[in-house]
Write a structure and sequence with these properties.
Length: 111
């Protein structure tokens, strides 16, 4: 019987994912607080400013991204053999994030 070896994710990568998660949450929370969630859309500095319901939906997409990043960090510390569970979490959070992102853009354009 083969012994299970859990995923190893370097500490620098875990800290990067954790810091990025905090940054995304802070950025989204501030945007909701001031009712002006700024989303960069090009390398040339163009932005999309979301307000109201569109900003709230975009914040949901940001939370999905944060959950996806944190799942990677948690997977490193989980010594059980449940990689399939983390793949499912990644799929669901990515799908939810994409749906919410597109929904926020549609809401913004149709208001």
């Amino acid at each position: 019987m083969d012994r299970y070896i859990p995923n190893h994710i370097p500490a620098s990568e875990r800290w990067w994912y954790f810091g990025l998660s905090l940054l995304i949450l802070a950025w989204g929370s501030y945007g909701l607080w001031v009712d002006d969630l700024v989303v960069p859309i090009s390398k040339r500095g163009h932005t999309l400013n979301l307000h109201g319901q569109a900003a709230a939906v975009m914040f949901g997409a940001m939370v999905a991204a944060v959950l996806n990043l944190l799942a990677i960090v948690i997977d490193h510390f989980d010594i059980r053999n449940n990689e399939l569970t983390y793949r499912r979490i990644a799929f669901v959070t990515q799908l939810a994030g994409c749906v919410l992102f597109v929904s926020a853009i549609v809401i913004h354009l149709w208001r």
